[in-house]
Design goal:
Blueprint lengths: L17 H21 L6 H8 L3 H7 L3 H27 L4 H17 L2 H11 L5 H20 L9 H22 L3 H22 L10
Helix pairs in contact: 1-2, 2-3, 4-5, 4-6, 4-7, 5-8, 5-9, 7-8, 8-9
Length: 217
């Protein structure tokens, strides 16, 4: 698939009324359904419009082409994950390193498994686009959030807190993505819930110059 410039992937207009918002929701849900049923190669705006119960003309009011439609779904997932982690960081402010590791893993997994079928489909289409700008922004936002959170942890001091926050972002994102793409079985998700907090805490504890971040997870 060709990769349009990022500016060409943006929706033509944003919904301003409840009816328009409902239409956008129906289009997004239909896109996931067609994608899962037929694959990305057979996904067309016409098929999505039919599944959503709207006209192709209505589709084009919001999404000028297939790539914009798929990009919109990926971007929405990124935004939802970002919002979930903002809320988690607010809840976890002032917790020790063990609590931070546990809480961030729980929040990240909750965001990614809220609709696990759609999440897997989104991982599949993410490779179709040049998402470098969107991913760079997401990493930057997460790193800043985690940096502030680590600054609030009692008994924690880091030589380079921003780098620790960046690595924490990479550990969460990479670990969950590889399982979601390969085999998001209940067994593997349970393993993530059990072992990923240990891995994150072990890293944070080893980077902590004070050596007194928290008890073992």
């Amino acid at each position: 698939m060709n990769r349009p410039e990022p500016a060409l992937l943006q929706p033509r207009k944003s919904p301003r009324q409840a009816r328009s918002a409902a239409t956008i929701k129906a289009i997004r849900e239909a896109t996931i359904q067609v994608l899962l049923a037929d694959g990305i190669g057979r996904l067309t705006t016409t098929r999505v419009a039919e599944r959503a119960g709207v006209s192709v003309g209505t589709m084009y009011q919001y999404f000028p082409h297939k790539q914009a439609l798929l990009f919109g779904i990926v971007e929405r997932q990124l935004n939802a994950t970002e919002e979930a982690m903002r809320e988690a960081c607010a809840r976890l402010t002032g917790r020790d390193l063990a609590g931070i590791a546990q809480g961030l893993v729980e929040a990240w997994l909750a965001a990614k498994t809220a609709d696990i079928v759609s999440s897997r489909a989104i991982y599949g289409i993410a490779a179709e686009f040049d998402l470098s700008d969107a991913m760079e922004r997401a990493i930057r936002v997460m790193t800043a959030l985690f940096d502030d959170l680590l600054a609030s942890a009692p008994g924690a001091r880091f030589a380079d807190r921003a780098s620790v926050a960046f690595m924490l972002t990479a550990m969460l994102g990479g670990s969950v993505r590889i399982v979601m793409e390969a085999d998001p079985s209940e067994e593997n998700l349970a393993r993530l819930r059990e072992e990923l907090p240990r891995a994150c805490y072990a890293y944070l504890a080893s980077a902590n110059l004070d050596g007194s971040g928290a008890a073992q997870v």
